[in-house]
UniProtKB/TrEMBL annotation, chain A:
Residues 533-668 form the Fumarate reductase/succinate dehydrogenase flavoprotein-like C-terminal domain. Residues 35-471 form the FAD-dependent oxidoreductase 2 FAD-binding domain. This is succinate dehydrogenase. It comes from the Bacteria. It comes from Flavobacterium aquatile LMG 4008 = ATCC 11947. It is a peripheral membrane protein. It is found in: Cell membrane. One of its GO terms (cellular component) is plasma membrane. Its EC number is 1.3.5.1. GO terms for biological process: anaerobic respiration. InterPro entries: FAD-dep_OxRdtase_2_FAD-bd, FAD/NAD-bd_sf, Fum_R/Succ_DH_flav-like_C_sf, Fum_Rdtase/Succ_DH_flav-like_C, SdhA/FrdA/AprA, Succ_DH/Fum_Rdt_flav_su, Succ_DH/fumarate_Rdtase_cat_sf. GO terms for molecular function: electron transfer activity; flavin adenine dinucleotide binding; succinate dehydrogenase (quinone) activity.
TrEMBL record, chain B:
NCBIfam families: sdhC_b558_fam. The keyword Transmembrane helix applies. SUPFAM superfamilies: Fumarate reductase respiratory complex transmembrane subunits (SSF81343). This is Succinate dehydrogenase. InterPro entries: Cytochrome_b-558, SQR/QFR_C/D. CDD domains: SQR_TypeB_2_TM.
From TrEMBL, chain C:
Its cofactor is [2Fe-2S] cluster; [3Fe-4S] cluster. Residues 157-187 form the 4Fe-4S ferredoxin-type domain. This is Fumarate reductase. GO terms for biological process: aerobic respiration; respiratory electron transport chain.
Amino acid sequence: MKLDSKIPEGHISKKWTDYKDHLKLVAPNNRPKIDIIVVGTGLAGASAAASLGEMGYNVKAFCYQDSPRRAHSIAAQGGINAAKNYQNDGDSIFRLFYDTIKGGDYRAREANVHRLAEVSGNIIDQCVAQGVPFAREYGGLLDNRSFGGTQVQRTFYAAGQTGQQLLLGAYSALSRQIGLGRVKQFNRHEMLDLVKVDGKARGIIARNLVTGELERHSAHAVVIATGGYGNVYFLSTNAMGSNVTAGWKIHKKGAAFANPCFVQIHPTCIPVHGVNQSKLTLMSESLRNSGRIWVPKKKEDAEAIREGKLKPTQLAEEDRDYFLERRYPAFGNLVPRDVASRAAKERCDAGHGIEANDTNEGVYLDFSTEIQSKGRQAAYAKGNHNPSAEEVTKLGKQWLEEKYGNLFTMYQKITDENPYETPMKIYPAVHYTMGGVWVDYNLQSTIPGCFVAGEANFSDHGANRLGASALMQGLADGYFVLPYTVSNYLADEIRTGKISTESQEFIDAENNVKNSIESLLKNKGSKSVDHFHKRLGLIMWNKVGMARNEAGLKQAIEEIAALKEEFYNDVYVPGTADELNPELEKALRVADFIDLGQLMAMDALQRNESCGGHFREEYQDAEGETLRDDENFSFVSAWEYMGYDISKEILNKEELKYEFIKIAARNYK
Amino acid sequence: MAKSALLKSSIAKKYWMALTGLFLCLFLAGHLAGNLQLIFSDALHFNQYALFMTSNPAVKLLSYLTYISILFHAVDGFLLTYQNIKARPIGYAKNNPSKNSSISSRNMAVLGTLILVFIVTHMVNFWAKMHFDENMPLQTITVEAMGQKQELYLTTNEGYMPVAQVAKSYEDATKTGAQSYIANRTEFYNTQAKVKIGEGYKDLHKITVAFFKDAKFGLIATILYVIAMAVLAFHLLHGFSSAFQSLGLNNPNWTPKIKFFGAAFAIIVPILFAIIPVYIHFFLK
Amino acid sequence: MSSAKNININLKIWRQKNAKAKGSMETYKLDNVSTASSFLEMLDQLNEQLINDKKEPVAFDHDCREGICGMCSLYINGRAHGPDTGTTTCQLHMRKFNDGDTIFIEPWRSKAFPVVKDLVVDRSAFDRIQQAGGFVSVNTSGNTIDANATPIPKQDADKAFEAAACIGCGACVATCKNGSAMLFVGAKVSQYALLPQGKVEASQRVLNMVRQMDEEGFGNCTNTGACEVECPKGISLENIARMNREFLKASIK
């Protein structure tokens, strides 16, 4: 497989502008002759579908939820980065570009990331114009906060619901186009295969989840914007329905899958409560602006806390280990996510974990210091220069409530503990996948006409994503990249005419899907889909999780391959194909997760270095920091599907060239 | 489109409910002021008031507005209720609405229908008699002159007409040779000249007192009246402040005040109405 | 979490094969439910039990399970999203129930939300209302004015945000005795009415959205306030009042 990243020549700051200026266009009168399919209606999908609809193409948009507004982008809490420098703290496009490359541990493409930083400002402008109610200061101008891995305040936010507000903005733009008839929306539809004709993406097979009917949809280009694959771990912060199926189906049809082992484990999630747990809940990274992370210094204190004999609030200051502040004084509690997660794991593995569950995995996120300092500030602001201790505490709690009220309420609902009084218990959980379908500079996969956007592609975050950058990338891809690059591709399609869905390729694809559904339903196995998914998740979390090693990865590869056989022999899927059948939906998704899980382990095994979210225990320095190997691993691994046996997949490499950023050890100390 | 929206849309229906409802609240206040004369004033003043209310052109206009409001409020209410029932064809097996809304707010249609029934009977009992009853008595007073009791009609020009000298009709007068007779239910005419010489007061006061003091039905009438006022109170308890919400008047400063005033209105006005028959039945001599 | 215990419960759940079938309430017994589980995890547990017994699992809508996507619904013991206030079903936890409880679980009931299967309903009416006018007509371009060019008073921005926090779950419709969607529509109308960006199209927006709302077969608002109480995001009735104002303004123009 030949990987051509199509990165334009020229200076980094000019590449996108020059490239964009020379892309081919489709004239307005030709656009209605062209069909585009967009799968997924999150930030990337909804913004792409809306923008392409506005341009005049015939767009069909698909989502598995009952409304495009429910895509999991909605759950993003903290914010969206943009190099606006409204706070005058030295921010710039270059600095956002640099922070993102560095945050990604030098495993992302320079040109893509710079483009992302360039359009970041436009995103904020566009969203405000759409009526997205970002947080504002009393002067009426936009407020910012800071996020992990940066030393500027460039994060725009809407309380703890930024993803929701941005998605509703994109959804409103999409709704407008649906109302105008430019976009046809298919809710409760799941793409189950890509149809290729003469080597080009020409349509999809989608299942109507209500009637079970298989539908053929043709188009001149297909955009996949179906999010990440974190649910391969079963427990993650992803939505229950989030899946890799669309990405995996195009992978099976020839699209390379890049860096599958790059997974982000988010440090601040609510710890696991028990065996019936179905998902993990994120507590926004923004909380690390105000909270201090600690565990008891002494193991016996940790044990006493787990047994309920000691309360965290009773532990003296000198008996607490603020391990992030201790290890990374420059960034403190605001180190990037991978660093914070690993540090928490290291403490818990050493026996200092405080959660009374099977694994003792949990650390404290403590707001008491912030309550005192903000309380004092608030008292002073009110003209009270000699506030009593109670007043300070009261005002401090008020401040917290205003800033993070919804998160604190959510925490209390889930755990039944009051985070204003006692520190939050948190532990890392799978959150985001930097890996994804390989795309070139145009966001086109190795299948011509098949574009991949947002979390579903691999392009911008390297081995670790910085907080508040996922929303930025989704919208950048959908609003400001795809409209140009898809048009460039479609400029050669204006003479193609309507694509028939009666061709042999469509018939074959539909039959394949039908057969795979029937074989699952006919399989009179004994175990539920969730049973297999949970087992896959355990293998992944234990062996392809926060810390990986060669022996574990090799075991994982074998175990997953065996699990795959067992799944196809022993899974039980109730119900029929011609009805709403959530178990069938899950079975189809888990089948793809099993394949992907194995590939992730293979990718992690070949990458003999530690970088970003990928931590190989063999490659760490004396202090437990990651040891990157730029000499041998400064490449994107792009896997090529070779059939049912995943272990046969071929590894292709795209070398990463750093022309404008000096590659260096990633240091947050 | 804007015009039809003002008639047909769901929100417009709310405006009409609110506007007619608030107008009827004003009517209630006026009506109450009049009724209270049954307690705090004498029969003459009450009947004078009743005459004013049935003859003054401005009041007439208002009364037509009231009839229209009642009609519109009722018809609109029935329409809303019908549509609302249609909006949920299958109900819940288990429902627990008391956790989220007041009982009066959920039963406005039932309360409203009861009030409508009350209004109809109330109008039959009093309004219709006042307007259409040919046998509506005219107010009289009894005076003792020279050891003899004499019954006199009161006339609107502050004069008197001895009852004995007034026949029920011209025919009667010609038969009995009475000096005068009554025409058009309230007008006194001279029998010879056939000219109007005065006008009497319809004795609504007497009708009212008799109604509530009736040996057979007085107690029941009083109780039913009190119940009707309780129903009205519940209707107003939601309706008053609800009208402001429908008209878009909801803000953190004013809403609590409106709600307070609405609740006070909803409790005080029906209580005052209810006191009157209770007073008549039990205490009026 | 350490206070978690296991309880045994009885469930009465609406089962309906598909949109056309006639449904009924069915009874199930479920043992050993951890009080630390969420309500939906309890249903997962029930489904696992049903699947192991080779019975058909209960279909219910859910996705993010963190209270924001608005996909989960369920009328639990006579209340939308269950007994807790300010909570979606996915964030309702079993510690709100006691050992031996019988829990009624029903789908949203509204003519405009027909049942698809079991507890799953079709809420696309909300999408169509949004399509009728729930947007600012601004095309994608890199050339909109700078985000800070138009200052917006913090108070207005905050209010717009509070209205925009609606997750479109439909609890307002489900709980309203009239099946009215005015809280949903009022919130959307309000968000835009409060922001300068939305004022240009305010009249058309409110007229179109209300027209669509009426066409979908939702009931009429009688201001019972139940929606505000049951809304998991605490959307205020003020938004309905604002919509009423906006509608009046637009109608008499």
